[in-house]
Write a structure and sequence with these properties.
25% of the residues lie in helices and 25% in strands. By secondary structure, it is of the alpha+beta class. The chain has two domains: 45 residues; 115 residues, Immunoglobulin-like (Sandwich), CATH 2.60.40.1220. The relative contact order is 0.22. This is Copper resistance protein.
């Protein structure tokens, strides 16, 4: 086999390996949350829900909601359904700023952790202790017009760019190896 053929075969194998590894380079990340990061809400939420771009593992999911004074308002382990993690918030949450902290493991085994805050502007309407008549509760929390934003990435975009650049270099090398002019055969020495 000629050297050019061997180089071309090696380049094809490496390019195929890189193409197949592309999805493995794409780690999971937080896509959306309710309440939204930096959200200002007027109605106390009943739960916090995080949505990721890949399924996450139940046994490794942790989600906390903590007030500025350190009080935990989501005392139970979150429930996980596919790419969603939910944690119920205790009733009677007072107005204030809250920090949501999460750490989950995606289906690819990559840990994802982050924090964000939201602000509750008023405490929930609770019936007085003597009152037997329940008061109507709003059905869903409302947020202000602030756009929802995802936390900073974990560098997976940089990995994708590097993988694409390396793949492009390999393809260019393969094309050059196949198109280079043949060298003349060596003349035997006299």
């Amino acid at each position: 086999m000629r050297v050019r053929s061997i180089v071309a075969i090696v380049l094809i194998i490496v390019a195929a390996a890189l193409t197949g590894a592309g999805p493995a380079l794409a780690h999971s990340e937080l896509v959306s949350s309710d309440p939204a990061p930096d959200g200002i809400i007027a109605v106390a939420p009943q739960r916090v829900e995080l949505v990721f771009n890949q399924n996450i593992e139940q046994q490794f999911a942790n989600l906390t909601v903590t007030a500025e004074d350190g009080t935990s308002w989501a005392p139970t382990k979150p429930t996980v359904e596919g790419a969603k993690a939910r944690a119920d918030i205790r009733p009677a949450i007072p107005a204030g700023r809250y920090t949501v902290a999460y750490r989950v493991v995606s289906a690819d085994g990559h840990p994802i952790a982050g924090t964000y805050s939201f602000t509750l502007t008023q405490a929930p309407d609770l019936p007085p202790p003597d009152s037997a008549a329940p008061q109507a509760q709003p059905a869903a929390p409302s947020a202000t017009a602030r756009p929802e934003s995802a936390p900073a990435g974990d560098g997976s975009a940089v990995r994708w760019i590097l993988a694409c650049a390396l793949g492009g270099l390999l393809i260019a090398g393969m094309v050059l190896a196949l198109r280079s002019p043949r060298k003349t055969q060596r003349q035997p020495r006299e």
